[in-house]
Automatic annotation (TrEMBL):
Keyword DNA-binding: yes
Organism: Muribaculum intestinale
Single GO MF descriptor: DNA binding
Domain Tyr recombinase, first and last residues per copy: 127-332
Protein name as it appears in the record: Tyr recombinase domain-containing protein
Coiled coil: none
Chain segments annotated as transmembrane: none
C-alpha cells in the first residue's frame, strides 16, 4: 500500500513537471507570455483551455522565425496562421487567432506597439443535439439500474452511474460539474445543490426534485456501506467509485454506450447520442413543460438560463428553437410577445 501511495505521488509530480515544462517559452515574447499566462491562471482559466496551446504554438513559431522584437504586425500573425494551421478546422483557427488577439491587446495595454489581428467569422455550431424522448429517458434509467459487474473491480464507476444520469437530466448540469460536487454541496434537507466548479466560474443553486431526492437518498444509503474511511466527510466527493475515489467524466463513456444499447437507442460513433445530450434534453423538456403549464417563455427563459449556468440569456435562446423543432405544438403555446422575441424556426 505504501509503495502504491508513492507511485501515485510520483505520477502527480511527473504531471506537474510536464505541465510546467510545457509552459516554458523561448522566443522574444517569453517574459510577456509568462506574465500573460499568470494573469489568466489567476483569473481561473482552465489548464485545458486552447489558449495555452495557441500561445505555445505562436512562441515556437516566433523562435523558429527569429522574430527580433515584441512589436507584432498583422502580416506576422497572418504568416503564423498560414504556416502552422494548414488543414485545421475553422473552429480551431478561430480559437487560436482569438488567443493571439487577446495577447496583442495585453501588449498594447503595456504600451507595446501591436496590431490586433482581424478575427475570422466565428464558425457556427454544426452539431444538432439529440433530444431524448421521455420514454427513452425512462429506458435509460432502467438500463442504468440493471447494470451489473461481471467481476469485482474496485475502480469501477458502475456504483454511481444511476444517480449521475438522474442528476444530469433532473438539473441540466454539465457532467464535469456533477463529478466535481462535494458532499457539502448536496443538501438533502433543504433540497438544494450548490454547483461551484462551473464552466463560467459562477456558482449557482439547483433544486432537488422529489424523484431525484429519492435517488440521492438511496445512493447515500448504499454508499455508507462501502468500507471507505471519511466517505461522508463534507469535503469528500459526492460521486465515487467502489474505492471511494472521485468519479471522472472520462470513465463514464463505455458504461453509457452499454446503457444506450440496453435501452435500444441507436448510437453512432462520433455522432451520438452523447451523455451531454441529457443536459440539452433537460432544457427542452423544461421549456415544453412550463409552456404547457401556461407560463410565458419570455419570462421563464432567464430562469432557465441561470439554471444552466449560461453567461447570458442569448445562449439559452438556442433551446427555444430546438423545442420548436422537437415539439411542434410548442410555438402555439407561446404568447404573441414570446413569438416576436423568439420566432419559429423550422430548421436548425
Amino acid at each position: 500500500m505504501m509503495c502504491h501511495k508513492w507511485m501515485i505521488i510520483f505520477t502527480i509530480n511527473q504531471t506537474v513537471d510536464f505541465m510546467n515544462e510545457n509552459r516554458k517559452y523561448t522566443s522574444v515574447f517569453a517574459p510577456y507570455l509568462e506574465r500573460f499566462v499568470a494573469m489568466k491562471d489567476a483569473g481561473g482559466l482552465s489548464p485545458r483551455s486552447g489558449l495555452y496551446d495557441a500561445l505555445r504554438l505562436f512562441d515556437r513559431f516566433a523562435t523558429q522565425e527569429s522574430i527580433p522584437n515584441v512589436e507584432l504586425r498583422a502580416e506576422t500573425i497572418a504568416h503564423w496562421v498560414e504556416k502552422t494551421m494548414s488543414g485545421n478546422k475553422p473552429a480551431t483557427i478561430y480559437e487560436k487567432i482569438s488567443a493571439i488577439g487577446q495577447f496583442c491587446k495585453y501588449l498594447i495595454r503595456l504600451g507595446i506597439k501591436c496590431e490586433v489581428p482581424a478575427y475570422p467569422r466565428k464558425p457556427k455550431k454544426t452539431y444538432t443535439p439529440y433530444i431524448y424522448s421521455r420514454e427513452e429517458i425512462q429506458k435509460i434509467f432502467r438500463a442504468a439500474d440493471a447494470l451489473r459487474l461481471g467481476s469485482l473491480r474496485y475502480h469501477s464507476v458502475i456504483f454511481s452511474v444511476p444517480v449521475l444520469l438522474r442528476l444530469l437530466y433532473s438539473t441540466g448540469m454539465r457532467i464535469g460539474e456533477a463529478c466535481s460536487l462535494k458532499n457539502s454541496d448536496v443538501d438533502i434537507q433543504t433540497g438544494k445543490i450548490t454547483v461551484r466548479n462551473t464552466k463560467n466560474r459562477q456558482e449557482r443553486l439547483l433544486p432537488i426534485i422529489p424523484t431525484l431526492q429519492y435517488a440521492v437518498t438511496q445512493y447515500l444509503d448504499y454508499r455508507r456501506k462501502l468500507p471507505v474511511k471519511n466517505i461522508d466527510n463534507p469535503d469528500s466527493y459526492f460521486l465515487v467509485n467502489l474505492r471511494g475515489d472521485r468519479l471522472h467524466p472520462s470513465c463514464i463513456g463505455a458504461w453509457f454506450h452499454k446503457i444506450l444499447r440496453d435501452a435500444d437507442i441507436k448510437y453512432i460513433p462520433g455522432i451520438g447520442p452523447r451523455i451531454h445530450d441529457l443536459r440539452h434534453t433537460f432544457a427542452v423538456h423544461a421549456l415544453d413543460r412550463m409552456a404547457k403549464e401556461g407560463r410565458d417563455v419570455y419570462c421563464i427563459l432567464p430562469v432557465l438560463s441561470v439554471a444552466l449556468g449560461h453567461k447570458c440569456v442569448t445562449d439559452t435562446e438556442y433551446y427555444v428553437r430546438i423545442t420548436n423543432q422537437a415539439y411542434p405544438d410548442f410555438s402555439e403555446l407561446t404568447t404573441p410577445i414570446s413569438e416576436y422575441v423568439f420566432p419559429t424556426i423550422k430548421t436548425i
